[in-house]
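User: quick one, fold this
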Amino acid sequence: MKKTTINIVTGMLCPLFKNSAIVATIYPLLMLALITDKCAAQKAFPAPLTIGQYIPEQFWSQALTDISAKSDKIFMINSLKGRPFIIDFWASWCNPCLANMPHLDSLSRVGETSFHVIMANTGGRIDSLKNLREFVKGYLKDKKDFNSPLVLYSPVLNAYFPHHVVPHYIWIGPDGRVKAITDHRQINPANIKTFVSGGNLDLPLKTR
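Assistant:
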């Protein structure tokens, strides 16, 4: 129940508030409804995660829509449990995103340093569902070896890892902990090798 709704109901009941017994009964119920609504809203949007924190179960249970193939597929994040992977937040209008996506995809398939990538659209008015499918189809036309899933906007992913500027990279280790949050300048073979081998990643934190 929204606060405005409670105010309206309270106004409608004002004539009854002259009776103290009615006030004592109804007002606590209205306050309880407001508190319950706030709690529900907080649960709907998980708290952001940062470096060093473990990924919660709600994250692993997400089913994402992969639009990189001819027809949509469901990509389950829990298929990556126990494996190193990077979430690459991108947008169709972001030139650095588009330039770095094939680079990151190719790095993910290099021998002993192989890992997984989820390329997650950051959402927004420009990247509507119809436009995005058409864009991805054209974008991948000349990228026959591209293998990473390109998934639609997920409010849960964005809530766990909020950002204002893309590209935005989340590095998650096989132990299920966030290892780094970076921009595209940290995507290079040396850092990838350290990441996959379980070494210490001391990379600049991207705060936007």
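User: anything notable?
Assistant: Residues 3-44 form one domain.
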